[in-house]
Amino acid sequence: MKLNQVRERLLAREELLSPHAARSATSRGRRSAETPSPVRTEYQRDRDRILHTKAFRRLKHKTQVFIAPALDHFVTRLTHTLEVAQVARTIARGLNLNEDLAEAAALGHDIGHGPFGHAGEEALAECLPEGFRHNYQSVRVLDRLEGDGRGLNLTFEVLDAVEKSSKVREDIFADGWGVPGTLEGQVVKTSDAIAYVNHDILDAIRAGLIDEDDLPDSSHRVLGRGHGNRLNALILDAIEASWAATGEGDPSSAPVIQFSPDVRTVANELREFMFQRVYLYDETRHEAERGKRVVKYLFEHFRRFPAGISAGFSLTGDPVERQAADYVSGMTDRYAIRLARELGCPDANGWDV
Ligand code: MG
Questions:
Q1: What is the domain range of residue 197?
Q2: 153 phi-psi bin (left φ>0, alpha ψ -120 to 50, beta other)
Q3: Domain membership flag for residue 205
Q4: Does the residue 100 lie in any domain?
Q5: Which residues contact 346 (CB under 8 A, 6 or more apart)?
């Protein structure tokens, strides 16, 4: 049978990866066992399942930093996700790790983000007694809500990497949300930071909040000037500083995904600079507060009238608060704004959607 030879060949290629790479043949598996695909490894199959979800498509109208941007070149959650996937594949390939696992986790990592980015997340966290975190919601979307409420039955390694892709403010590499169990998961977490710091700088320049000369001197000194140079410097440094992940060279150094100490300091400084000048800037905050009020308004509406929740966006056996949160967090910015406007929420006026 010719088709099965494809799978044999793919599995043989995985054997050539680093001894520290994750292999689909030794995956911890899925919640329910499935017949293998003849032409794809398990991680390739997960990647395709994520890509074909409705939740993935909705990322195109969800905020990264700037809410419902009227201009075409601003980053959205979708283009952010694609950039993370590309950075992750480059680093994974550079270290001879499993590119397919990194790609699958990268495509799914932000799929649980609600409308209005972190503002939407904060709003829902204040509405639910158990709180709300986009990384946990990403796992929930992939594992429970998609596939008509059955979940996608993804591999353990992909779900683990999605759950632990989140970072705390202080340090890109701090383990506030847990350390991914695979190096590919660590690659995704690092690639997320590399991607967003860089494209958020571009967007902030585009929005007139900062210009290139405002960036910290250390960034220009260590990473160079301009978007392409910064992005390239961070990716190259991550590959070089994580070389032990290849299994080549000094066997005493632990395989871990990291930056060199200098670059780690600079990357965290850049991130902190972005918090102060962009993410927490008055005007950004003002828009974000408005977005939060829209999300709370919608949550409250659907908590009171759960019959209005469209089928397929929540689980009917769940408490109404949970159902409302699942429904509202699935909305795009523009859907949330239009719906809230229709329902009479004054904060939803004034956005051009
Ligand atoms: Mg992200």
A1: 59-348
A2: left
A3: yes
A4: yes
A5: none
- Summarised one tens digit per residue, pLDDT across range 13-38 is 999 999 999 999 999 999 999 999 99
- Residue 16 within any structural domain of the chain: no
Q: What is the DSSP letter of 246?
A: G
Output the domain CATH number for residue 313.
Answer: 1.10.3210.10
**pLDDT per position as a tens digit, 269-303:** 999 999 888 888 777 788 889 999 999 999 999 99
pTM: 0.95
88 C-alpha to ligand 1 centroid (Å): 12
Torsion angle of C-alpha atoms 166, 172, 176, 178, degrees rounded to 10:
60
Distance 221 CA to ligand 1 centre (A): 26
| Contact present, 220 and 264 (Cβ < 8 Å) | no
The structural domain count of the chain equals 1
Rounded distance from Cα 213 to ligand 1 centre (Å): 26
CA 348/CA 341 separation, integer angstroms: 5
Calculate the CA dihedral of residues 168, 193, 155, 2 and round it to 10 degrees: -170
Q: How far is the CA of 21 from the centre of ligand 1 (A)?
A: 23
